[in-house]
Specification:
This protein has 12 helices and 12 strands. It is of the alpha/beta class. It folds into 2 domains: about 120 residues, Rossmann fold (3-Layer(aba) Sandwich); about 180 residues, Rossmann fold (3-Layer(aba) Sandwich), CATH 3.40.50. Strands 8-7-6-9-10-11-12 form a 7-stranded parallel β-sheet, with helices on both faces. A 5-stranded parallel β-sheet has the order 2-1-3-4-5. Helix 10 links the parallel strand 9 and strand 10. Helix 1 runs parallel beside helix 12. The structure holds glyoxylic acid (2 copies). One glyoxylic acid binds next to loops.
Length: about 325
């Protein structure tokens, strides 16, 4: 029988698909990520055939070696920066992800963060709850309108494309973008125009939204130097991966009004926040919940199950990344 270790419970729809194929599932009973030590310990218990992992698990050589029988690690996430692909390759382990299912959820969440920070929604809410509201005022909580503003997208994949489409078509923002290469598909869907460097996007845009995968080349893509290129009136959004921004430098930039505000769903050292970040009124933060819709998480559960099923039926899994 095919036996799979599941590092944390995911929505039932995916688990039922696996069970109905006769797979035996051992599911972690902890309602938190396992530490690497715990994961290694549990993987050594049985000759598992595969592992269903989460973005919060570090899957490196030691983890692969704890369970040499497992020839697939199916990651329940679109991002797979938590998996050491070169170590997987060395051992002939297949890695899959769950793209597409969460595009709409993450794109809409990005727009929610944009509205929240630009219209000062959270700041105003806090003010009211603290009993500070003494009546309507002509200049109380002035924010911005988005129509006609320039949206700069860094990373023109599916999610970046959908954010640009909603903002361009729905709000009348004009879209510019940077990616390692020009994307016809992105331009057709969004009317966006290409810039050959991230610097050009940073200088021109009123709102910058990051949608790159986390790679050595995108780590600290936004550092103090690049933050300083942004307009003083500009806002930064990040729903990709935390380490893409030097968070300490961002806190400083926000404190010193180098930029106007930020909307963040991901953090450099999750679940920790950089010192001072949570004290800033011009920041809206959510706990890595951009893909947290029922439909996205169910969709991801179905995809992760489809990948495992295909693999054990001897087919190439639809979302193989390595
Ligand atoms: C979420 O962050 C994902 O990569 O799925
Ligand atoms: C993720 O699905 C992306 O390509 O942005």
């Amino acid at each position: 029988m095919t036996t799979i270790y599941v590092t944390r419970k995911i929505p039932d729809v995916g688990l039922s698909m696996l069970k109905s194929k006769g797979f035996e599932l051992d599911i972690s009973t902890k309602d938190r990520p396992l530490t690497k030590r715990e994961l290694i310990k549990v993987l050594k218990k049985k000759p598992y055939d595969g592992v269903l992992s989460l973005l919060t698990d570090t899957i490196d050589g030691e983890v692969f070696d704890a369970v040499p029988t497992a020839k697939i690690f199916a990651n329940y996430a679109v991002g797979f920066n938590n998996v050491y692909l070169d170590e997987a390759k060395k051992r002939g382990v297949t890695i899959t992800n769950t793209p597409g299912a969460l595009t709409e959820a993450v794109a809409e969440h990005t727009i929610a963060l944009m509205f929240a920070v630009v219209k000062r929604v959270v700041e105003s809410d806090t003010y009211l709850r603290k009993g500070k509201y003494k009546g309507w005022g002509p200049e109380l909580f002035l924010g911005e309108e988005l129509q006609g503003k320039v949206l700069g997208i860094l990373g023109a994949g599916r999610i970046g494309g959908r954010v640009a489409e909603i903002a361009g078509k729905g709000l009348g923002m004009s879209v510019i973008y940077y990616d390692i290469k020009k994307s016809e598909e992105f331009e057709k869907a969004t009317g966006g125009t290409f810039r050959a460097t991230p610097e050009e996007v940073l200088k021109e845009a009123d709102i910058i939204s990051i949608h790159v995968p986390l790679l050595p080349t995108t780590t600290h893509l936004m550092n103090a130097e690049r933050l300083a290129l942004m307009k003083k009136s500009a806002y930064l959004l990040n729903t990709s991966r935390g380490p893409v921004i030097d968070e300490k430098a961002l806190v400083e930039a926000l404190q010193k009004n180098v930029i106007c505000g930020a909307g963040l769903d991901v953090f450099e050292h999750e679940p920790k926040l950089a010192k001072g970040l949570a004290k800033l009124p011009n920041v809206v933060i959510t706990p890595h919940t951009a893909s947290a819709t029922r439909s996205a998480r169910d969709g991801m559960a179905k995809l992760v199950a489809e990948n495992l099923i295909a693999f054990f039926e001897g087919k190439v899994p639809p979302n193989r990344v390595s």
